[in-house]
Amino acid sequence: MTKMSHNRGQENLATSCGTFALYSLLCRHAKVKTIPNQHRTDEELTTYSRSTFNENSFAEKTKKWLEAQDLRKNALLLLVLAGTCMVIGDGILTPAISVLSASGGIKVNNPKMENGMVVLVAVVILVGLFSMQHYGTDKVGWLFAPIVLLWFLLIGGIGIFNIWKYDSSVLRAFSPVHIYRYFRRQKRDGWSSLGGIMLSITGTEALFADLAHFPVSAIQLAFTVVVFPCLLLAYSGQAAYLMQNTDHVVDVFYRSIPESIYWPTFIIATLAAVVASQATISASFSLIKQAVALGCFPRVKVVHTSKNFLGQVYIPDMNWILMILCIAVTVGFKNQIQIGNAYGTAVVIVMLTTTLLMMLIMLLVWHCHWILALIFTILSLVVEGTYFSAVLLKVDQGGWVPLVIAGAFLGIMVVWHYGTVKRYEFEMHSKVSMAWVLGLGPSLGLVRVPGIGLVYTELASGVPRIFSHFITNLPAIHSAVVFVCVKYLPVYTVPEDERFLVKRIGPKSFHMFRCVARYGYKDLHRKDDDFEKKLFDNLFLFVRLESMMEGCSDSDEYSLYGQQTQQSRDFLLKDNLNTSTSVADLTISSVDSIVPVKSPLNATPTVSSGPESSQTEVDELEFLNSCREAGVVHILGNTIVRARRDSRFYKKIAIDYVYAFLRKICRENSAIFNVPHESLLNVGQIFYV
Q1: SS3 category, 487
Q2: CA distance 99 to 118
Q3: Where in this chain does the record put each K+ potassium transporter integral membrane domain (predicted)?
Q4: Which of 168, 404, 542, 554 is most buried, judging by how many CB atoms fall within 10 Å of its CB?
């Protein structure tokens, strides 16, 4: 089992990214996302691609069928989450089985050693492995390729030696007729053995799935020239060894190693197990990060461990949870046979999930003919269903472990996503009408306080209810108000120069704006990113471009700064800084003071041009800069979800206890955006579902 460790790790790394990557592809080509926060401007991103279908095509009918009912959208998401949770289970089982099987080599040359000592060594290695995760793989990643290459060459060479020394007739097993004879002879036992046989092939197909990290030619070359031949030679060599040593079937790998190279092989095997474990742990972190971005997992602290690679992240809370569960599995089972049964169950369910998603991808994304998609699905399900039926026979022999782990994580994800969707629907249905805002007048019926208020909301359009709740209970509002919406799109990443969308709300005299910050599911809010500075840079750009575009008929709802060149952006920012000076007739004071501000813009917005337009632009930029110097306050809404009194008991448990507990322990939005506490204002409200 040790020699398969690296392959298993690579499979999980690719699959974890692949599950959400496939789902994001489907969300781009069909409206199946359960949180409907898409906007037509999102489709203009350079990383956003989608295609249209013929009205009468099978793909178009499939698309409409998926979009027709929320039940189908939820079923698709549930399928994705089930596969995702199984991968998390892999992230727990792979380090356990890899390290434990590698550590088992100590006992082979010391038969009198107790199994508890092997487990203790494995636990020590696991604790050290998880304790080093905060350093990331960037610093030690350069060692992985030499270790893996040496590992494959070593097991391939040992296989050749064993074939030559013991029995070269095992090569006849490449004939398909022998599998028929095997099943006819072994019958039910032969069928049950497929659960263990599957472990020898898991991971090899992931070389073709991990296209985001390597060129296609490199993956094809590595698999064809190195991985596949070395695995065939290794297994054939072990079969040849067993022909003359049938009593060594339990630990055949270490028994078949020539004694002269036993300990070097043991060291390489342990290092390969560490590489495999590192791959699956990193994959689990990446997967949790993507789940958080899609609103399917509670907000947790995410640390970016590499400046060069986008996907290398570390999640402290999940790291220690995975370590505890991994040690519990290792100590609880104490041998790799039962852990292998558990691992096989998780892997085959992930395969089934991926196949079902691939069927939709072939139809909606690749535009394959439905007959071709059907043939692919049937052939894949026949193979995977065969293995699945075999692993079901071993559920009571350890196969229940990934089901329990996946069930726990699936419950957390479903409850959290349900609460997130209900909160978004509440925001959508209770947003304030523009007629109400316009009826308040330029002062919004309040005293305008010097400064800028950044109101965070989940809405990409409309004025959130939290704003009306705020001005109803407080007698003042800031001179300038910016509604900030941070949303994640079903794309891998959003280019930095296309991240922000800015729009004006109401007349110019209101000084109200909306800014939408868009991120991909692999993007990360880094601590060194000055989110506030970038937001204001884009706001000033909007004011200048809006002034330049006055009187033009080809204006859009949003200003897309991503369409501008870097040179034009730098020029506008430089010009903005040169023209933005202090305003003499403004009363500047602290944010907490209630002092009326004389606005330089009180006129009704009209189509203007020439010097008048330029002066208006300069005045507004000066006004915004003076407000920014007066102080910036971050206003965060804290919407509490509660179940109605007449709700069923399971809904009350899910909302009032599970979801409330997850909200309590999850990371605050203020920490995600690095908002200083002295500039933070929380506004709470309760709604019932």
Answers
A1: strand
A2: 10
A3: 18-436
A4: 542
